[in-house]
Design brief:
The chain is of the alpha+beta class. The chain folds into two domains: 75 residues; 211 residues, no CATH class. 38% of the residues lie in helices and 13% in strands. It has 13 helices and four strands.
């Protein structure tokens, strides 16, 4: 199929060399370093880590540099690298109540237990270009934050005490790892959440927005959004207990939704959940909205035919690496395939033209055959 490409290997080598030149850009401009990307393009780094399923800010920054800022290409690089890493074991589930919060807000309770912390946010900024950044001026220092409590209780726990929100059931079984086993439908909620946290932020955002516009009847409040650092622990068999092996930054979102009740459930609030690597609050909120929309069956609700309620549609189209691979492969040579379809179209056109060609009338007005009249004249 690719034999007809003359000089293909040489052309590819030249394309790679040209790509490296384009990535570097004008040599008179200082080159971006990996630490600069890691520290100053943190939100992009966080997205690459989340959708690449690998928590490593340095590698994510390197991938962004190599991909020239194409985040989906950077996610592809991270996922490919991830497959080469040895697996030593699994960590203990993180306890987000132990989060050292940099940001913690609630849209449901003004005086939330534990307090509200605005943290670093775009929420109250004016969407105006700051030309002082182009001048590379000094950054104003923020006031030092007060000491944070080691434990910050979840706001949902206060609704739980009154029995006003649908309870969550803990499972003793370890959920399957979506990075190691293919997704199969119908999926359990833990698999759906894994798929959503790895899913493309723009796609999940679009699905979440559709639920707010009425395609799922899913009006939600952000009960709590928190961003901060949590410890990661791992069981050590030789020791018989878990030890802390590091810390990661995560964003967690819990939404509270109205629920009129069903044949099996009383009227109560229900919840959606999102948890993402790094500071990724748009993704976490979107994830929580879509999670709630996908729970219609387990809550005994009617399926309204909304796209966000369609598990197969959402989960199979959320993965931007699969989507990119399938989409971009069509720009590669398909000469043989196209030639076969070209010949088929030509054949069908010839047949259609033959069937619609006008027939020559060879009879005279008296109804006799013209060839018969000529034969009679000759005799």
């Amino acid at each position: 199929m690719y034999v007809a490409v003359k000089g293909g290997e040489r052309a590819i080598d030249n394309a790679h060399a040209w790509l490296a030149e384009e990535r570097r850009g004008d040599a008179s401009v200082d080159e971006l370093s990996v630490p600069q990307i890691r520290e100053q393009l943190k939100l992009a780094v966080n997205r690459v880590m989340a959708e690449g399923s690998l928590y490593d800010p340095d590698l994510a920054a390197l991938a962004i540099k190599q991909a020239r800022g194409d985040l989906i290409e950077a996610i592809f690089l991270i996922r490919a690298y991830r497959t080469t890493l040895p697996r030593f074991g699994g960590s203990v589930p993180i306890e987000t109540e132990a989060m050292a919060c940099d940001r913690r807000v609630s849209a449901t309770f003004k005086d939330a237990p534990g307090g509200q912390m605005l943290g670093p946010t775009f929420d109250y900024t004016h969407r105006l270009l700051d030309f002082k950044l182009a001048a590379e001026g000094d950054v104003p220092a923020a006031e030092e934050a007060e000491a944070r409590d080691a434990q910050t209780p979840h706001i949902m726990s206060f609704l739980d005490r009154e029995g006003l929100i649908q309870p969550e059931t803990d499972s003793d079984t370890t959920p399957p790892d979506l990075t190691r086993t293919p997704l199969e439908l119908p999926a359990t909620r833990d698999l759906r959440l894994q798929s959503l946290t790895r899913g493309d932020e723009g796609f999940i955002l679009g699905m979440a927005y559709s639920t707010q516009r009425g395609y799922a009847r899913n009006h939600a409040f952000v009960a709590e959004l928190r961003i901060g650092v949590v410890p990661v622990e791992m069981d050590i068999p030789e020791l018989g207990f878990a030890i802390e092996i590091g810390e990661i930054e995560v964003t967690e979102c819990e939404t509270v939704n109205q629920f009129q009740g069903s044949k099996t459930q009383p009227p109560q609030f229900t919840r959606g959940y999102g948890l993402v690597f790094g500071m990724s609050e748009r993704k976490a909120i979107s994830m929580a909205l879509v999670d709630r929309a996908l729970r219609w069956k387990e809550l005994g609700e009617d399926n309204l035919g909304a796209p966000a309620q369609d598990e197969e549609f959402v989960l199979y189209h959320a993965d931007n690496i699969q989507a990119t691979g399938f989409l971009e492969h069509i720009k590669l040579p398909h000469y043989v395939d196209f030639q076969s379809e070209l010949e088929l179209i030509r054949k069908l056109r010839r047949e259609a033209q033959a069937n619609t060609a006008p027939q020559t009338d060879t009879s005279d007005a008296s109804g006799g055959s013209l060839s018969g009249k000529m034969k009679e004249a000759a005799e």
